[in-house]
Amino acid sequence: xxxxxxxxxxxxxxxxxxxxxxxxxxxxxxxxxxxxxxxxxxxxxxxxxxxxxxxxxxxxxxxxxxxxxxxxxxxxxxxxxxxxxxxxxxxxxxxxxxxxxxxxxxxxxxxxxxxxxxxxxxxxxxxxxxxxxxxxxxxxxxxxxxxxxxxxxxxxxxxxxxxxxxxxxxxxxxxxxxxxxxxxxxxxxxxxxxxxxxxxxxxxxxxxxxxxx
Length: 213
Hints:
Layout: H1 9-15, H2 27-37, E1 42-46, E2 50-52, H3 57-64, E3 70-77, E4 90-94, H4 112-121, E5 125-135, H5 143-152, H6 158-176, H7 179-197, H8 199-202
Parallel strand pairs: 3-5
Antiparallel strand pairs: 1-4, 2-5, 3-4
Helix pairs in contact: 5-7, 6-7
């Protein structure tokens, strides 16, 4: 899935015989499009700012998903010890569990809420593989507001989602093992709340050339 990249991504992908689909709507649309067009037994999501550091990750992930108790395998960041939710930076799903409409087009973040909802509906668990990847986020500016705005758009209890978000932010900072990041938690959460109360302003993140919003 190519979102208006201008850095040679598509050229490199073609050298490896990848099928390239272009989109300009956002993460919700892109995730659903992947679910729709993939015809393999497994779907592996690898975000553009993720580097896989375990050569056996896909082998482990697909082996786990041979067990019908599991519906998703998450690759955790290098050195991370606290697992949470369903981060999609490095994620493997079984195709048969995600047929039909799963992720709505209107979301541009928190699209994994809808993947988790499908897992819950089918009674499936998530397996976490440690030390699988390095995530070098390209979109740090306005990320808290963007996440907050899209959390507001979820069809769920606002109070509950705010609690879940705070827990995730804390675990993320603890995983970093950086005192600076841990101290930044209150500021990050306040920015998250700024997006939450004004989704019309913050719900879309511009990943194209020329800006971060």
